[in-house]
Amino acid sequence: MILILDFGSQYTQLIARKIRELNVYCEIYPFYHIPKHIAHIRGLILSGSPFSVNDHNAPKPDLSAFLGKIPVLGICYGAQLLTHMHGGKVGASGLREYGRAKLHVLQPNNPLLNKIPEKSQVWMSHGDTIDELPEGFECIASTEDIRNAAFEIPVLKAWGIQFHPEVYHSEYGKELLKNFVVNICGCDQSWTPESFIQSSIESLRRKIGVEKVVLGLSGGVDSTVTAVLLSEAIGDQLHCIFVNNGLLRKNEFQNVLHQYRDMGLNVKGVDASERFLEALRGVTDPEQKRKIIGRLFIEVFDEEAHKIEDVSFLAQGTIYPDVIESASVAGPSSTIKSHHNVGGLPDVMKLKVVEPLRMLFKDEVRRVGAALGIPDELLGRHPFPGPGLAIRILGEVTPEKVALVQEADYIFINGLKEERLYDHVWQAGAILLDSRSVGVMGDERTYEYVVALRAVHSTDGMTADWVHLPYEFLARISNQIINRVPGVNRVVYDISSKPPATIEWE
Length: 506
Ligand code: XMP
What we know:
Elements: E1 2-6, H1 12-21, E2 26-30, E3 43-46, E4 72-75, H2 77-85, E5 89-105, E6 119-132, E7 138-143, E8 150-153, E9 158-161, H3 173-184, H4 193-208, E10 212-217, H5 221-234, E11 238-244, H6 252-262, E12 267-271, H7 273-279, H8 286-306, E13 311-315, H9 320-323, E14 352-354, H10 362-371, H11 376-379, H12 399-418, E15 427-441, E16 444-457, E17 465-466, H13 471-484, E18 488-493
Parallel strand pairs: 1-2, 1-3, 3-4, 4-9, 10-11, 10-13, 11-12, 13-14, 16-18
Antiparallel strand pairs: 5-6, 5-7, 7-8, 8-9, 15-16, 16-17
Helix pairs in contact: 4-5, 4-10, 5-10, 12-13
Bound molecules: xanthosine-5'-monophosphate.
């Protein structure tokens, strides 16, 4: 395995994903939590950081367990740290160097630069630069502006690079990372969806034995892949619960329940729609809606789980980005999450937890799902928020409004699928505004609801751009919604990006 020490760079997760794409397993740890068991670690990567090594509070962990013992690659801050630790000079470069640069290879035979052409494009993003290398360091590549763009410390089997190989704009970045993890560290490229499935099934069987596991299915990719993987491992010892909170898309509950059963999952569908809608009556505050829905879901799930005798484990579809404790500029304390009051937790939350996907990135979850034979239709679904349509109905949620937004959403999403636009959009849906506007239908004045359509491109939901859907398509969907959804006389398209807007309206 490759260990990546995170110093708070925005690109750390990208390094991990690029290495995983090489079918080499790696894990990210914050610089202040260096793992204790390191015998299986074949190489170490030090990430970039918003810090300067010259800052009085710059992170400088003790790397003596690794340096000289296994190969080390410092990227940006990591390279500056290696330089600084050994007495070299790192200084502010005057202006921030950001963007594309041409890398000139000085040592074509260096193992880190194997198969990298003499000149290629790399991506820079740094405020400091390495002015002087310590004795024993060898400069192996430069750019027009930076002499020490890459170096080797031969006695330590360590390298440093000032650019970011993990970023798309570094042309030969993947080759460089491959040179490090495969050729230098000697990792074999055997981390594949199939090998993950096989080893997970074995370890799940060992961990669970003959005991029973309960899992809440949401229709989303993560819980579905978790269920199918567990079902492969322990069959009907897995009991799935799929709750209809009355806030799902049109026909979603029945359709997805059928799909789950067709996949051979042992799943119970629980229709708690009325309970949720009743609890939401009169509530207009978005956060309040979220709290009510979250609490009620746990209540319903807890009641259902109690009906299964002797259940010992709670399975969850947690994935790696939820688990990674990112090193933040504000320091370790700001990332530590507060704990719930254990005494007050419902019984299901006291069960032993099993999270088979906790080390996977989202794209890896999809690949594992495909290798498990889960239909593309389920794996390619857009993300959908836990509180469902409740946060797409501005203001009070009523059964009538749910039906209305379900209809509008159905027309929009079906239209995207028919036009083969669905897979090019990261997330889409219809929002029902809480104000009405004047319109005219025939000779009659109308005073009805407004529906907003939202479609965004994103990679992780943290930032998003609105999608430039074709005007003809928007015109057709607008017509269909106004003609077919009674109570709506106006459709608008949301052209805001995140930030400063958010994807959901509430
Ligand atoms: P925002 O609106 O914050 O959404 O830009 C980013 C992503 O998160 C989803 N989202 C939620 N998911 N519970 C969820 O499970 C929530 O309360 C929630 N709020 C937003 C949203 O759909 C988008 O994918």
